[in-house]
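This is your field. Have a critical look at the following sequence-structure pair:

***
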Amino acid sequence: MPRPLWAGAISFGLVTIPVKVVSATEDHDVHFHQVHLADMGRVRTRKVCELDDQVVSQDEIGKGYEIAKDQTVPVTDEELEQMPLPTAKAIEIAAFTDADSIDPVRISDSYYLAADGQVAAKPYALLRKALERSSKVAVAKFAWHGRERLGLLRVREGAIVLHSMKWPDEVRSPESLAPREIEVGEDEIAQALQLADRMTIEDLSGFRDEYRQALEGIIAAKAEGKPLPAPAEDGKQDKGEIVDLMAALNASVKAAKESRGEHGEDATVHEMRPSKKAARKAPAKKTASSKSAAAKKTTGRSSTAAKKTTKKTAAKKRSAS
């Protein structure tokens, strides 16, 4: 079990559930040191007092709040722990709500809540069952790292999860960032939906951090004195290139089908064509003109043949007389 980050209790009405908070995620990032390139010596951050220019150890460092330019008030951890705040050592459930009503942008870090001792087992299971059967999430308040926070409780694989959340006034409005209204054709929307359907998966377990894997490959090659891996081809297109949206969607759907071993013609998207009414008018004009030209040619041929026949008849009459 990971090292507990915090210990307290869940306050659920008159029910108190002792819990320990452990991180629900792991950090797999590759961390670098700052080094002196000339000799690879570590470059560290030293904590120095600006008054006496002396390096200060961690046990000599405390919290202080500047209330004026030359006046700072010290605040100890003991004073923070003894604040008259209900959430100082408790995760106080304030309400329940539908999970769909929570904007994901407000969710921050995630933590597992472990029952702290045998006495916590039954109330822990009670809250878990209540969350599961109601299909709701609990909204809670708790104090941590020097501030009161808003939290969300839900159940994941039998354990209660605490999601730290942003307060409503901490979320910026995206109104100024949204693009202006642009007309999008129904064919384009239908094709985008078809692409989304082709790309739908059951879960996210197959995703991997390819950047970290590539970075570890570079580090391993340098450590062993081997050549660095060949760089990947840049599949990005130029920023100035104009994209044919329908062609791009069509190619994307086709690629998605091929990746799943599917074949067929339903992925083809055709360009927008004129309406049926306009399409009927154009051929009609062409046909009329064709008929007119054909009629003129027929009339011309008939007239010429008639003249020839008349001449022949006149010649026979003169020969007979």
In short: The two ends are 133 Å apart (CA to CA). The CA atoms of residues 109 and 164 lie 5 Å apart. The longest strand covers residues 147-156. The chain is about 35% helix and 25% strand.
